UniProtKB/TrEMBL annotation:
SUPFAM superfamilies: Hedgehog/DD-peptidase
The name this protein goes by in its record: Peptidase M15C domain-containing protein
InterPro entries found in the cross-reference section: Peptidase_M15C, Zn_M74/Hedgehog-like
Domain of life: Bacteria
Organism encoding this protein: Sphaerisporangium melleum
Domain spans labelled Peptidase M15C: 81-160
Gene Ontology MF term list: peptidase activity
Amino acid sequence: MPVSGLRKVTMTYWGFDKKAHTGELIVNREVTDDVVAVFRQLYRWRYPIARMEPVDVYKGSDFDSIEAANTSAFNCRKVAGSSSWSKHSYGKAIDLNPRENPWVEPDGSVAHDNARRFADRPLDRPGVINPGDRVVRLFERYGWEWGGYFNGAKDYQHFSKGGG
């Protein structure tokens, strides 16, 4: 993905502290309108987001970004445990509240200690995404798929345009 195909989207979001914050996502220009529409609705709902910074702040480390509970999009990297490029490498994937919505292995384990209490998918916690909820339906309205529906390990934070 050439840099010319990426766009920086600066937007306001509600934090878990119930205050408005300004954040940035780097996305593929082809999905910019989707991202703006989705996050505009999340803002209207006052859906809490812990942090929203480009992964460059974490020197490209997906692990460090997740440890910081950071919502992010573009990151030139491979799919975990694979030789294939992630949709994040093309700016067509977003990880939303990775602490509250962790990657969960079939045995229930998670890679991040800060996410352990969210592995069992509590229904009533702010920022948690569950099957069929309004956040999943909102992304689906724009043709995005949710990692919580993956076979095997579940990637509850992950939304991507065009699968994977």
